[in-house]
Amino acid sequence: MRPGPASSSRPLGAITRGTTGHNRLRRSDRWLVHSSRVRTALQAAADPLVVDLGYGALPVTTLELAIRLRQVRVDVRVLGLEIDPQRVRAGQAAATAGVEFALGGFELGGHRPVLVRAFNVLRQYPVEEVPGAWAVMQRSLAPGGLIVDGTCDELGRRCCWVLLDASSALSLTLACDPFAIERPSDLAERLPKVLIHHNVAGQPIHTLLRAADRAWASVAGHGVFGPRVRWRAMVELLVADGFPLTAPRRSVRDGVLTVPWSFVAPVG
């Protein structure tokens, strides 16, 4: 089933592979906890409801999300939504205080959350269906709400995600374990669906990844201090070259690079 007119009788979407695992989404979770925009949205919400959309065959990443977001707001409520009833039953069997599971798709089960995490969901859809799925979720957000549409590898070492509000995409974040890459463009295989087919010459995302590779090579000398130090040096060089990157204000174990969506949005 594909996104279409909202229906109260059935969830919107299609059953995806459902692969998941403990700590697979730890990098995006850490980013959510420290993002000033996400923190502000959660702290200002009248109802701190967060939806984890398409959590997969096991509910582990939903439970982990709740634990991590409680660093931002102790009364956060997390609702895992799946369109496969068997997965919902597995989630309900593992539910804990402040974490529930229910049937739902892109319509968000009729709820109005302040934050939606949809990881490794739209990657499995045709690219032309992404705008429609975004729009359905955006219409269901609470005031000031945000959406994270992302993709990661099986172990969560390479991740990319788009942050959206109710009207538009806001930013793209690339994140990785710097020990798990040879060069930044290794992340290209995990770009969100909306971008992965645009990693070709002449497109902004291709320009960004090629520039990151050049900067990574230029700061190779920092590698003697470890790949995390080298990643930070790469980011500093890109900023000095005029790239509009938002780098973490604190020293983090992840390699993280965030740019405004307008800088990488597909052209043509």
Keywords:
Rossmann fold; 268 residues; alpha/beta; 9 helices; 8-stranded mixed beta sheet; 18% strand; SAM-dependent_MTases_sf; single chain; Methylase
Report on the structure:
The protein is of the alpha/beta class. It has a domain at 26-178: Vaccinia Virus protein VP39 (Rossmann fold), CATH 3.40.50.150. It contains nine helices and eight strands. It has helices at residues 26-34, 36-44, 60-69, 85-94, 130-139, 193-196, 204-218, 227-240, 261-264; strands at residues 49-53, 77-82, 99-103, 115-119, 146-152, 158-164, 169-176, 255-260. The protein has an eight-stranded mixed sheet. Helix 4 links the parallel strand 2 and strand 3. Helix 7 (204-218) crosses helix 8.
Write the layout of secondary structure elements.
Blueprint (H helix, E strand, L loop, with lengths): L25 H9 L1 H9 L4 E5 L6 H10 L7 E6 L2 H10 L4 E5 L11 E5 L10 H10 L6 E7 L5 E7 L4 E8 L16 H4 L7 H15 L8 H14 L14 E6 H4 L4
Parallel strand pairs: 1-2, 1-4, 2-3, 4-5
Antiparallel strand pairs: 5-6, 6-7, 7-8
Protein name: Methylase
InterPro entries: SAM-dependent_MTases_sf
